[in-house]
Structures are given as structure tokens and as C-alpha cells.
Design goal:
Strand content of chain A: over 45%
Number of helices of chain B: 0
Radius of gyration of chain B: 13 Å
Oligomer: heterodimer
Radius of gyration of chain A: 14 Å
Shape of chain B: globular
Number of strands of chain A: 11
Order of helices and strands of chain A: EEEEEEEEEEE
Chain lengths: 119, 107
């Protein structure tokens, strides 16, 4: 059974980098059939897909245009997890952040992390 | 980028009613469309993927249809536990955008 466990700080100062990690059990981040996403949700923006990483003989990344200049999603095969890094954050980045596994058989979501951007 | 537009944005119906929510893509997405249910304070739950495939464990009163640009989520007989916000999402290619959501309430 696939499970995703998120970790990371709940408070980030403006202009700093938001970093979250999603630990995977029951699958491999290097799977050739899964995609590993970060999604966030706020009252003002609804559900917003941020980006994904996936392995198909080599690593690929896709990012949303709205955050493309500020985002990195990194897989770590040794720890079987993937991470989100969003730099130069502002209060507009305050949201609940989710990691999500997509697969032909459906999706699995992490528990969500409320990240507040405030000084 | 392909935009996903849901209608209506909110809906009130009676227990036992047939409820339909629509999702429209600004360009064709074949059948790469998922429907999620989200209850307050909870993680979104996958109901349907590939436009019409019911996720394991989801009640059969939920169904999905459509292909290309127009999709529908139907609840055949509304139950009190179906009160939630429903979202569609395209996932064939990036960006994997969501609709703005449909809030479903009981009359």
C-alpha cells in the first residue's frame, strides 16, 4: 500500500525558501509508471498544481508557469523521497501543500502541510 | 495552457436527487480527467479517473462521463455524506490544472 509522509517547517519568512519533503513507502521514486507531484491549496487560489518529477529512463520535471522561476522538485533515490523547494516566498505562498503520487491505478496524497509565510 | 472550467460553482439539492456537475477543458484532453471530492479540513479524495473509471471503494452512485473537452460527474441519488466540494483535474500533460470547484450542499 502506497503511503506518502510529508515533513517540513510550517512557518517560513518572506524572501526565504520553502522546503518540504515527501517520504514514499510502498513504491519507488524511480518507478517507471508513477509521477510525483506537489499541489497546494489556499482559499484565494483553490487547488493549484505546482509541478512534478518522474523517471522514464531519465529524470523529467514539469513546473507550473506561475512558479517556474522559483521552484525545484528533486527526487532522492537513496532516501526514496522527493522534495519541493520554492524560493523568494511571499505571503501569497501561504497554503496547504500536498505531495501526490499519480499512477494509472489512481492517485495517493500526502497528509498536507500548512505553510505560513510571515515574518 | 489548457483551462478547466467547472459549473456550477455551487449547488444545493435534496437527498435522493440526481446531481450533475460539468467540467469543460479549453482544448481537448482525450479522457485524461479526474474527479475529486474534498470535505472540509480533509485531503481531496479521488473518485474517478480516466473520465469514467470509478476508484476502488467509491460508491456506485458516482459516475463520470465525457471525452475531449466536455465532462460530467453525476451522483445518481444524493446522500447527506456527499456534502463536499468537487474538483476536476486534467492530467495528460503539464500543467495538470484543476477546475475552480463546485460546492455541493443539501437543501
Amino acid at each position: 500500500q502506497v503511503q506518502l509522509q510529508q515533513s517540513g517547517p510550517g512557518l517560513v519568512k518572506p524572501s526565504q525558501t520553502l522546503s518540504l519533503t515527501c517520504a514514499i513507502s510502498g513504491d519507488s521514486v524511480s518507478s517507471n509508471s508513477a509521477l510525483w507531484n506537489w499541489i497546494r491549496q489556499s482559499p484565494s487560489r483553490g487547488l493549484e498544481w505546482l509541478g512534478r518529477t518522474y523517471y522514464r529512463s531519465r529524470w523529467f520535471n514539469d513546473y507550473a508557469v506561475s512558479v517556474k522561476s522559483r521552484i525545484t522538485i528533486d527526487p532522492d533515490t537513496s532516501k526514496n523521497h522527493f522534495s519541493l523547494h520554492l524560493n523568494s516566498v511571499t505571503p501569497e505562498d501561504t497554503a496547504v501543500y500536498y505531495c501526490v503520487r499519480d499512477h494509472a491505478s489512481g492517485s495517493h496524497w500526502g497528509q498536507g502541510t500548512l505553510v505560513t509565510v510571515s515574518s | 495552457d489548457i483551462q478547466m472550467t467547472q459549473s456550477p460553482s455551487s449547488l444545493s439539492a435534496s437527498v435522493g436527487d440526481r446531481v450533475t456537475i460539468t467540467c469543460r477543458a479549453s482544448q481537448g484532453i482525450s479522457n485524461y480527467l479526474a474527479w475529486y471530492q474534498q470535505k472540509p479540513g480533509k485531503v481531496p479524495k479521488l473518485l474517478i479517473y480516466a473520465a469514467s473509471t470509478l476508484q476502488s471503494g467509491v460508491p456506485s452512485r458516482f459516475s463520470g462521463s465525457g471525452s475531449g473537452t466536455d465532462f460530467t460527474l453525476t451522483i445518481s441519488s444524493l446522500q447527506p455524506e456527499d456534502v463536499a466540494t468537487y474538483y476536476c483535474q486534467k492530467y495528460n500533460s503539464a500543467p495538470c490544472s484543476f477546475g475552480q470547484g463546485t460546492k455541493l450542499e443539501i437543501k
